[in-house]
Amino acid sequence: MSDSRLFHPVRLGDRHIENRIVLPPLTRSRATSDGSATELMREYYAQRSGAGLIIAEGTVVTPQASAYANVPGLFTDEQINAWRPVVEASKRVGNAVYCQLWHVGRQSHSSVQPDGLPPQAPSPVAIKGFSYRSPEGRIPYETPRELTTDQIKEIVQAFGTAAANAAKAGFDGVELHGANGYLIEQFLDDGINFRTDEYGGSLENRMRFLFEVLDAVTEQLPANKVGIRFSPSSDWMDAIDSDKRTLFSTVIRRLNNYSLAYLHLVEPGIAGSTNAAKSDDSIPTKELAAHFDGTVIVTGGHDKESAEELIKSGVADLVGFGRLFISNPDLPERFRLNAPLAELNSHGLYGGTERGYTDYPRLDSRFL
Ligand code: PHB
């Protein structure tokens, strides 16, 4: 066994996995226009199956839940069937393959909504200070439509159905996307949720959607096959709250009632998919992780050395490497051998062909 802590086996929910290296969820936009996974995606995930845990990219739970073209879904039989060979090719003895369940709320745009109308969100407030990535370039976000109570309940059920569908597709579990100012966080944050019904106002009310989703999902899957992700120190996409420390420490402590597979925290200093300046009021990951009784995954800007330090200091049990895993399909092998790492190429990050997706080579035979 390697002396690196990244290669010490660990229990994750109902499985034992052989390393602590995580492929975190990464939107790559290679699904078909109707949200079905593709042969190219099968190759991409199979190339990265050395990860102890693969968390497949954000996968939408309803036709309204997506912000972009070519994002996969898990709400039709075709989508379930299309994921199956991808999941199968990603699995090996000693790893686990999860799917991230996603609803973007107000981060969507009328141009990708099935009815051509603006997207729906807890409150009719547009995202300020950021712009939407349209095929023609950056454009302003629209004012979303306010979700009705019935529509909220339908979305809660859709998360449950998508979790059941993930199991049908062969996934070992699911991760709820509670990070980066998407729908779950849009309910949590008091600077963007102005509802006056039972889903807005007090912290108790703002947490209601998240815990209803969690209840719906854990009705379909055992809780030890369910993880959740937050980015507590990020205000990317205008995710504004007056007291994120109280918000996330309260949410995380309540998650202890569920015996989940894991809590996944994005480090301060990460804005969606890129680095940002760390703000003075960022909350140390160590502090938040300490509230959680179970397995903790930490992602955001880490390299092998800093990841080992995180594990050694007890902050994280596993560490995610997003950008490094894009350009190094055999990242665990490179870490094990202390081999050089390939640089990320900005071409092909979102959509397109195999270029910038499956064409990053494995390690040169000189190092084997
Ligand atoms: C992105 O498409 O850039 C993206 C998607 C999901 C995230 C963050 C960024 O959570």
Q: Can you walk me through this structure?
A:
The protein has 368 residues and is an alpha/beta fold. It has a single domain, classed as Aldolase class I (TIM Barrel, Alpha-Beta Barrel). The protein is 29% helix and 17% strand. The protein has 11 helices and 16 strands. It has an 8-stranded parallel beta barrel with strand order 3-4-5-10-11-12-15-16. A two-stranded antiparallel sheet has the order 1-2. Helix 1 packs parallel to helix 2 and helix 3 packs parallel to helix 6. The longest helix is centred in the middle third of the chain and has 20 residues. It is globular. It starts with 9 loop residues before the first strand and ends in a 31-residue tail after the last helix.
Number-wise, the strands total 16
- Radius of gyration, CA atoms, in whole angstroms: 19 Å
Shape, principal axes of CA atoms: globular
**Number of domain units:** 1
Total helix count? Answer: 11
Major sheet: order of its strands?
3-4-5-10-11-12-15-16
How many strands, which pairing sense, and closed or not: the largest β-sheet? 8 strands, parallel, barrel
The overall pLDDT average reads 97
Percent strand: 15-25%
**Stretches where pLDDT falls below 50 for ≥5 residues?**
none
Order of helices and strands: EEEHEHEEEEEHEHHHEHEEEHEHEHH
Please render the helix and strand layout as text.
Elements: E1 10-12, E2 15-17, E3 21-23, H1 39-47, E4 53-60, H2 77-90, E5 96-102, E6 120-121, E7 131-134, E8 137-140, E9 145-146, H3 149-168, E10 173-177, H4 183-188, H5 203-206, H6 208-220, E11 226-230, H7 244-255, E12 262-266, E13 270-271, E14 274-275, H8 285-289, E15 296-299, H9 304-312, E16 318-320, H10 322-327, H11 331-337
Parallel strand pairs: 3-4, 3-16, 4-5, 5-10, 6-9, 10-11, 11-12, 12-15, 15-16
Antiparallel strand pairs: 1-2, 7-8, 13-14
Helix pairs in contact: 1-2, 3-6
Bound molecules: P-hydroxybenzoic acid (PHB).
